[in-house]
Specification:
alpha/beta, 41% helix, binds NADPH dihydro-nicotinamide-adenine-dinucleotide phosphate, NADP, oxidoreductase, Ald_DH_CS_CYS
Length: 458
């Protein structure tokens, strides 16, 4: 993809950027390596001070940052503003907790392993490459940047090619907070330029959030080079509604799951699996609430959701809908490409989706919901697990036994009961199966890119 601000609301290219030259990439790698030698010798307190200052800058500039996000990828200004402040909160979380997360440990008494002294230390490993997507341009990158820097690693950000201004902002933010020059840099490179970077010995590890194809390519290159990778690759999350569910609460959350961020969220409900006893009522209430949403200008107050981020993502979403329609799915609302400029797509609900339809198996990254009836709770669980993905799931019930059934039975990295699937700096985030491996956020997230060093002394 060429590196450009291609405004999804108008379809106009507003600004193009040249990819970094080999000389610029070499300079960034050298700066990252040099900054690591400085950063690894700083204390948690020093790094926390810089991280707090960077978070203060982000909060103070949140409106400008939100305008950039909405212009580049089309989410509503209100949700972009929320994202900027949430990112600052995530930075403060790691500033305040990194020292505890990475404190040395003594898991057994020294004499149990024949030593006079033992320690397990968590030490930084060096420059880490982050390949990031456009759907949460600041938050996704921050989930990597804040723990990496607080651990004492340096970061190189290869952001999605359609969000260069968010990328450049992040490339300066941490130095403005006080981190050494070179500690966190943006590389303006296209997807096709990423793999050779992993052959460079100075890059010690890689994290990628995005599609399964990009993740598999990057992980293969990392594996060839014996480098660690963390992959966060999206999902086809189940949203399970059982007869005791509070539909007044579930329906608006279901709508938000599908139209929030124009449906371009890895962790949002996509497959709505509804018990037969409440199926008709849920279908009717959910479909009319979806039909009542308003897509349009991300900066207008009345807009529920903006355009799709890229023309390609909209095309892929519509192809999934057309494939399902051709194979017999019913389109209860939406499903038509609007005329006019911009990459808008209406809130869409499909029923009668069968396993031969692509949308039953693939991630649909747009405001399209599929409804599936379930005979009972066990059937709902079986359907929920019948996916190549395993990121997260949302379950709606008042019965403790059903909560237990789904909490233990779901093959996902997260289970949300009677609430919206989301990410929190304090809680691990990630998936199983094609949703990837490794975890972001919380203590486990910061420990992904450290050298866990055992020290044993006779
Ligand atoms: P991609 O996976 O192509 O892009 C994500 C990041 O990976 C971008 O920085 C991209 O760079 C980079 N990239 C792409 N191909 C390669 C490669 N072969 N080697 C190294 N890096 C690569 O996502 P798309 O934007 O194309 O979206 C396609 C689909 O991916 C969506 O419809 C959705 O299903 C899924 N997706 C999931 C996300 C999630 O949150 N888990 C986020 C985004 C997408 P560049 O932009 O330069 O191509």
């Amino acid at each position: 993809m060429p590196i450009a601000v291609h405004n999804p609301t108008t379809g106009e290219v507003e600004k193009e950027y040249a990819a970094h030259t080999p000389e610029q990439i070499e300079a960034a790698l050298a700066a990252s390596t040099a900054a690591f030698e400085t950063l690894r010798r700083t204390s948690f307190e020093e790094r926390a001070g810089w991280m707090h200052r960077a978070a203060d800058i982000l909060d103070a500039e949140a409106e400008q940052v939100a305008r950039t996000i909405s212009t580049e990828m089309g989410k509503t200004f209100a949700s972009a503003l929320f994202e900027a402040h949430k990112s600052a909160k995530g930075m403060r979380h790691y500033a305040d907790h990194a020292a505890t997360y990475l404190a040395s440990e003594a898991p057994v008494r020294p004499d149990q392993v024949g030593a006079s002294r033992i320690a397990v230390r968590y030490e930084p490993i060096g420059p880490v490459l982050a390949v990031m997507p456009w759907n949460y341009p600041i938050w996704q990158a921050m989930r990597f940047a804040a723990p990496a820097l607080m651990a004492g690693n340096t970061g190189l950000l290869k952001h999605a090619s359609n969000v260069p201004e968010s990328a450049l902002y992040l490339g300066e933010l941490f130095a403005r907070g006080g981190f050494p020059e070179g500690a966190f840099q943006t590389l303006l490179v296209e997807g096709g330029q990423v793999l050779p970077l992993l052959d460079d010995r100075r890059i010690r590890a890689v994290t990628l959030t995005g599609s399964v194809g990009a993740g598999a390519a990057v992980a293969a290159a990392a594996g060839r080079n014996v480098k660690k990778s963390v992959l966060e690759l999206g999902g086809a999350d189940a949203f399970v509604v059982l007869p005791s569910a509070d539909l007044d609460a579930a329906v608006p959350v279901a709508v938000n799951a599908r139209v929030g961020n124009s449906g371009q969220s890895c962790i949002a409900g996509k497959r709505f699996i509804v018990h037969r006893d409440v199926y008709d009522e849920f279908e009717q209430r959910f479909t009319s609430a979806m039909a009542a949403t308003v897509y349009g200008d991300p900066f207008a107050d009345k807009t529920t959701f903006g355009p799709m981020a890229t023309e390609a993502v909209r095309r892929e979403v519509h192809e999934l809908v057309e494939d399902a329609r051709a194979k017999g799915a019913r389109v209860l609302t939406g499903g038509e490409l609007p005329d006019g400029p911009g990459w808008f797509y209406p809130a869409t609900v499909l029923s009668g989706v069968t396993p031969d339809m692509r949308i039953a198996r693939e991630e649909c990254f747009g405001p399209v919901a599929c409804l599936f009836p379930a005979e009972n709770a066990h059937d709902a669980l079986r359907q929920a697990n019948e996916s190549d993905f395993g990121l997260s799931a949302s379950v709606w019930t008042r019965f403790p036994a059903e909560i237990e059934l789904f909490s233990t039975g779901l093959e996902t990295g997260g289970v949300f009961v009677n609430g919206f699937t989301s990410s929190f700096p304090q809680l691990p985030f990630g998936g199983v199966k094609d949703s990837g491996y490794g975890r972001e956020l919380a203590g486990v997230g910061i420990r992904e890119f450290v050298n866990i060093k055992t020290v044993w002394q006779a």
